[in-house]
Amino acid sequence: MTGFYLRWAGVIVMAITMAVLANKNYQEHLASISPEAVLAGEHSHATLRVQGMVGSGSLTGSPEEGHAEFELLGETKHLKVQYQGPPPENLRELKTLILIGRWDSGSQVFQAQDTALVTNYGFVASAYLIAFLVLVASVFSMSRKVTCLFQEIKESKLYEPELETHVEHR
Fold first, then answer.
1. The whole model's pTM is what?
2. How far is CA 56 from CA 47, 53, 73, 93, 95, in A?
3. Which of 13, 18, 45, 131 has its CA 20 to 30 A from that of 87?
């Protein structure tokens, strides 16, 4: 029975390790910050992912050719953006998007070079977590029942050897 619990402890440790590594990867490569955080200097990476809405009436330049200037709106502040990169399909006014680029603190302009999809990672992660927990609970329950059944069979006297009876043939 100890091996059973050690095995499941190993599964839990592996799941926790995977969750920590996935969170670290998300924070380093996928997490976005707000325009307010950029203006406050709350960033540690050279390349930033900033999420906001393109301000109404602020889009100038030629997005079809890959260069534009606009304001990215946060909840309370806005960020001036100069976009130079591949022609984005989703750059238009009042559109929420994620911009990838660098912050120029001298000119107070965000130099964007690419856009990214805005996804709801919280919903996706929670859906995977719930499905994973249900799966682990089901497998644990089945494994526990099989182990208990094996112990019960092993302790019963079903496997006693048969008594040999000698029948005389005439």
1. 0.61
2. 26, 9, 9, 5, 9
3. 45
